[in-house]
Amino acid sequence: MPAFLSTRRIVLQTALAAVFVSTSAGALAQAAKPAPTKVRYEEVVRSILYLPAYVALTQGFFRDAGLDVQMKTSQGTDKGMAALLSGSADIVLIGPEATVYVQNSESPVKPRIFSGLTATDGFMLMSRTKETTFDWNKLKGKTIMGFRPGSNPDVYLETALRKHGIDPKKDVTIMNNLSPPARAGAWMAGRGDYGIFLEPEAGTLEREGKSFPVAMIGSEVGPVDYTVFTTTDAFIAKNPQVVQAWTNAVLRSMKHVQASTPADLAKQVAEFFPAIPQDQIASAIERYKKNNLWKTSPLVEQVAIDKLQDMLIASGVLESGKRVKYQDVVVTDFAKRAK
Question: Over 60: is that where the pLDDT of 24 sits?
Fold first, then answer.
């Protein structure tokens, strides 16, 4: 055999061997990689306010952390907490007030907050007419479409009213007997003089000329954690690595949201709002960004829980003698270790 053919055969055999070794190594590595852990997750309602959670899903942050997240929408903090306590959900995104209530209950299962998401309330107070200047005193004697009694939207609304010298029990009528899916339809049917709405509902009503924003409730109340990731003490004890992975992904998403433009973020979460134009999603994101509604750290601090309980007591949904200890409702380890 000519020397050059022998050399060519040796080179070819070497290359094939290298490909075989590389392919085998890749297959072994793939086989050795553990399957992602399934997590049953429920969000309180579908809203652009929860943008960082959707970004973590669409951009693969949860997947990169080894989690296979299956999401449902509860349609209310009370329903989300019920899912958690019954064992049909592993992690829920709900208001922290629910954990305070359950801590005072006889439930043997105790929920624990391990990560925050929103820094304050994202509801906008909407009027049926355009108001070039808004005076809170205009609300006196009016009916305001609120939320379920004792829920964060209702408590934050009442806090904002009291800040402006309005007694929510005497000076206004708060309509709070509507389920979340029924609120927009009830507003369109003419119920209520004013109402509180989240994005994207608020933007849709505004574009259709059916209501107009006059105030941001969270800006009136100030920073108090509004929605938090919550699980049970039993789930934490059994799956600490899952809770840490979740918190790491949330922190990564928070940083991504801060660094990205509203237009880019709108593209990334558009699949969660198929009926909403992307430019409207981007406008809603920009509005929320300007009001600093998203946390930059997953840590829920004691000052927030203390202020929340002050608000619950002022609204008459928590007895002053039943304040709960911060360490009994918030687990800080995972947020402090998040990276």
Answer: no
